[in-house]
Every structure is written in structure tokens, then in C-alpha cells.
Specification:
four-stranded mixed β-sheet
């Protein structure tokens, strides 16, 4: 089963909490965080590491003990546990990890306006047509970020990242509500799962969450990470 874990990184705003949690993650993650200049970026990166640690707990492992290697296109994997696949993402005040025993990619995005030029430049024709069917500007923004997260999750699951053109594949939103992928990267069938933000966070800002994998066995809901001391 593909499981997903979500953390609100505002929990890391207190300096004492941030440093306590920073000491709990691997040297590799601490080094990545140290290279970031913006405090919000540091919290998001640390939040992703905490989410990964929580996810690895299901395998009896700790993130702080992990060693990493990078694939040819920069996707990280666990050096001594190639059977475990994971994907990390963050946006605004949230970070997330999806994990399983098959390839997985995920993305979380904060929904905001003013991104129409991005869609017109990078989205496929059928994706743009579906966005244009929205009844108003708010729904159009929601649809754009739905597609965005799904496309990003596919880029990650393939391991190709941005070396794959966003127009070389398409998310197809079918009339019956099913989601399929038009792609020629490989001969696999990929499945996409959309998640709502866990209600425990009482979030007033809209986010979109998508997870992509050749395994259709997704956890029904993401698990939320609430820090306690």
C-alpha cells in the first residue's frame, strides 16, 4: 500500500522546536537544510524529513540512520533499502512524504491565482481544455493546480523529473470522474490518487495533493503528523 504523511510546518516556527527536530534527522538532511537561506524553506525541508521519518517508522526504520544515493536525474533513494520507494514534496506551510514498495511520486501545491501563463506554456491541449470548462475564475485556479500536482507527481514517479517535457504527457480527466495518463515514457499503467488536506489542521487556504504510482493500492486518507513534546 502507498501511504502518505502530511505535516504542517508552522509547528516548527519556534526556534527551540526547530533545533530539537533538526537534531532528530540524518546528517544528509541537516546538510541540505543548512544550505537553505530562507527560514520558511528550512522549515519546509525539515518538515519533509520528519514526514519521511514517520513513514519509515512503518518499516521499523529511522530517517536519521539512512544513507542516500541519487538517481541519474537527481531523485534520492535509500542506499541500503532499495525495496522502499518514497517521494517528498512541500508548499507554503506543508510538507509531505509518500512511501511504498513500488515507485511513487507526489506533489502538494498551494492554490493561488495568476498562474494562467504557466498552464498555457506547459500544459497539454486536453488539460487546457478541461481547465477552460471551469465555471468561474476560482474553479479554474483549482483545476489548474489539480493538473499541476498530478503532472508533478508523474514526473517524480518516473524519476525523470524536469528532463521530461510537461507537454509530452497529459492528465486526462474523464467525464465519469476517472483520471488517466496519456504517456509514452514506458509501458506501465499509472494511477493517481488525490487527497484532501487532513481536517485536523483546520486549514483555511486551499491546497491540492496528488500521488502517482503503478500500484493502485493507495491509503484512503493521508496520515497527519502533529508534533508533541
Amino acid at each position: 500500500m502507498i501511504k502518505t504523511y502530511v505535516i504542517n510546518t508552522r509547528q516548527l516556527e519556534a526556534e527551540a522546536v526547530f533545533h530539537k527536530m533538526l537534531e532528530s534527522v540524518s546528517p544528509y538532511r541537516r546538510q541540505k537544510i543548512a544550505l537553505l537561506k530562507n527560514d520558511n524553506d528550512k522549515r519546509r525541508s525539515l518538515g519533509a524529513a520528519i514526514a519521511l521519518d514517520k513513514a519509515l517508522g512503518g518499516y521499523g526504520l529511522e530517517e536519521r540512520a539512512m544513507e542516500y544515493e541519487l538517481g541519474s536525474h537527481g531523485k534520492p533513494f535509500l542506499r541500503y533499502h532499495p525495496e522502499i520507494h518514497f517521494s517528498l514534496s512541500h508548499s507554503k506551510d506543508y510538507a509531505m512524504c509518500s512511501i511504498g514498495n513500488v515507485d511513487v511520486g507526489n506533489d502538494i501545491e498551494w492554490v493561488r491565482g495568476g498562474k494562467e501563463k504557466v498552464a498555457k506554456r506547459f500544459f497539454a491541449a486536453e488539460e487546457l481544455a478541461w481547465i477552460e470548462k471551469a465555471s468561474d475564475l476560482e474553479e479554474r485556479d483549482e483545476r489548474m493546480f489539480q493538473i499541476w500536482t498530478m503532472k508533478e507527481s508523474f514526473l517524480k514517479v518516473t524519476g525523470l523529473g524536469m528532463s521530461l517535457s510537461l507537454k509530452d504527457f497529459a492528465v486526462v480527466m474523464e467525464e465519469n470522474g476517472n483520471i488517466t495518463l496519456r504517456q509514452s515514457v514506458d509501458d506501465k499503467k499509472y494511477y493517481i490518487k488525490e487527497y484532501a488536506m487532513p481536517p485536523v489542521f483546520n486549514e483555511q487556504v486551499a491546497y491540492k495533493i496528488a500521488v502517482c504510482s503503478p500500484d493502485s493500492d493507495f491509503a484512503p486518507n493521508p496520515e497527519q503528523i502533529v508534533l508533541t513534546f
